[in-house]
Amino acid sequence: MTARLELVYHADRNNDLSLARAACAGDERAFERIYQAHAGRVHALCLRMSGSRTRAAELTQDVFVHVWRNLAKWRGESALSSWIHRLTINLVLSNARSEQRRLKHEMSDSIADGSDTADDEPRRASPGAQAPADVLNAIDLERAIAELPPGARTVFVLHDVEGYRHDEIAKLTGTAEGTCRAQLHRARRLLMDALGGER
Amino acid sequence: MKPCMHTIIAAGFLGAAISSAAAQQKVDIRRAASPTVSVRLGGAISRVKVLGSDVDSIVLIGALGAGSRIDGGALNVPGPVQGMKYFVDAPDEAGVRNNVFELRVPKGARVWIKAGSADVEADGVTGGLDLNIVGGSVRVSGKPRELIVESMDGSVTFAGTAGFARLKTATGDITLDGGGEDLTLSTVSGGVRAAGGAIERGRFESVTGPITFAGDVARGGDLRFDTHSGALDLRLARGADAEIDAETVLGTIENTWTKTRPAVGREGRGMDLGISSGMGGARVSIRSFKGNVRLAPR
Amino acid sequence: MTHLTFEELSELSEHRLPSAEAADHLATCPECRAAVQRLRNLLATAHALPRDVAPPEHVWTAVRDRWRREQGAPVRASHVWVRPLLVAASIVLVAGVATIGLMSRGQIVKRSGDAAAPAHLVSAVQTLDRNYGGTIAELRSALESRRDALSPHTVRTVDRALTIIDSAIVEARAALAADPANQALMDILSAHYQREVDLLQRATELSSS
Q: Is the ipTM of this complex over 0.90?
């Protein structure tokens, strides 16, 4: 079974490599195939990390512009999907950072400075006050994620949706692991509030 | 959700001071609170005023109509309150009308209000406000970090600046007197009026409602106006740094802000207009299906 | 009883033990155990969110146009401000190729016509319809079943707003039939769909609160 999986893996990798080479050589159809194969994944990530449909469409567009401009640098060491995934995260984060710089404004929710100490304080919970699990469905959750403050949203999406570890997120965002954890707790608390706070 | 509410009461009921009278009952609840306390108030309310202050306490005072009752309490027992939740029930519509409250909170609090037809006023809250009504009105002033208002036919007015604001109605009017970093004003058929402040990123949307904008575009800002058939009236400071692109499918475009004339649109219908003014630092996009667009100096 | 902090509950939801005291408390407190379970439900839902969410069709058109520009291939000029067009989708409307399900007041309005439009253009509108049509149908059905929970005033307001949006959708579609390559129109249509979803979601929430 392992051998079979590896064969499939190599076939995919080889296929990706040939598509990438063709796209680098100017083959539009090859590039379109790369786009069609990865656009859904990229868009989902942009949508959740940006919290905005409009912004997600713009970011997805930017990601694929970056993909073709840098495709020649991808040598197949990692899967094309992983390479594009990482590129997406970097682009979304870098976009958020430059937006912050442009606004010359310290966002209190930002993971860049971790300044939101008020929300990092331990909170006594009233466990019984939350909503039953059955209110948690995907549509509500997507909507609630979009309403999270940017910093908390980034960490929640990367950790709880995408499965990144705190040390990886800390590296990606250039912040301390403790700050990431605090943002994650904050995001979860806000989501529980949003999803279960209504009577 | 009823069992949850009962648990709250059991865990930390504050002993709402409700004095009974034949027709009306007074509500007077006071409690020390965390500076970032979360407060929810919902149900059969006709009027509520939320006031943010420097004092770290929660005060809920008001009156309940005959037959109405208020349930709820704090989400934690010891120490300053970090979360509170109240729900008001009324026996009938007449009862709702007499349910009137004033809620004083630390300015950094997050406040949720959810009511049917109600007049909600909020002032001085710098934390978060999430206000949801069907009818009536919402009036917010101050500098909330996050402001979310949803209403069906109730009007929404915001005077101040917000880090993040989403103001949505179905048929109610939306009025903004101020600005902020990331604002969306969206309605189906209500009117949208915005003036008085600089906006970094703004979205103004309607289906049939008119949109009037007389605010400032922040340097490097990004404003978008979308309507189906509402009239779009933009009044900008002369010489403002902006790149403006407008397009209608069937509507007209009238420009007296600059001398640039709009062109006839695709296939002889609608109009297009592109203007680059000053350093072109900000971007303004205007899109209308058949609403007429007017661009004029302020 | 002093319950665990939210941070402790959050750690426990990932099967991490913040402290021995927390473990002791958890063993004796059914409320905190229930809270941990609810958090685990949240995490399970988050983890199960769809990995793929198709972007609007205009994204590919925009990427492709930029690609062609950089490759030196001819690209049809497009308006700078408008998000790139959904030529594909709109052409379908002219040709009226496929059957397009437009949810309108709980009914499916079928449109059909000439089958001359290129197949790849058909898919764009179908994608738009698929993305919104199902959601709108579900929400309308949910709202219909809970209509009695809303006040007559709210029902009237929601109906009025839905009628306005539906009319706008019909107008935008008719205009697309006359001008199939109009990117602004496709964006307008997409925005109307989104508004309808938003409104239905809000109304459904009101009816269930």
A: no
